[in-house]
Design a protein that fits this description.
3 strands, single chain, alpha+beta, three-stranded antiparallel beta sheet, about 20% strand
């Protein structure tokens, strides 16, 4: 199992901010700070969990198109798809309430 090196940051108010996660062959720089809303919306400066889930799914789908196609990969893709669905549902709910892109709960 790959040893992870993690550094997760909080802002001055204790809200989750950016950070870095590294392991053998990869480094993820996480989004630091909220994106804001409407005319105050900023460009992302790091990865979101959803981005990393999509990348893992794409890699497993690549395996599924090869001689390494198997049920375990298919189940993992389904599990990652469910995780992504949950996170996207959370985002949609936050958009509906007008708090997406902020630290409001």
């Amino acid at each position: 199992m790959t040893r992870l090196i993690e550094e997760h940051w909080n802002d001055v108010d204790g809200n989750p901010a950016g950070g870095v996660t590294s392991g053998q062959g990869f480094t993820i720089s996480w989004q630091n700070g909220p994106l804001g809303r409407d005319e105050d919306r900023k460009e992302p400066n790091g990865a979101f969990v959803e981005d990393i889930i999509r990348a893992a799914m794409k890699r497993l789908q690549f395996y599924q198109r090869s001689k390494f196609n198997c049920g375990a990969n298919a189940r993992a893709i389904d599990d990652l798809d469910r995780a992504l669905f949950s996170l996207e549902a959370r985002t949609a709910e936050r958009c509906k309430r007008g708090v997406e892109g902020t630290h409001e709960e």
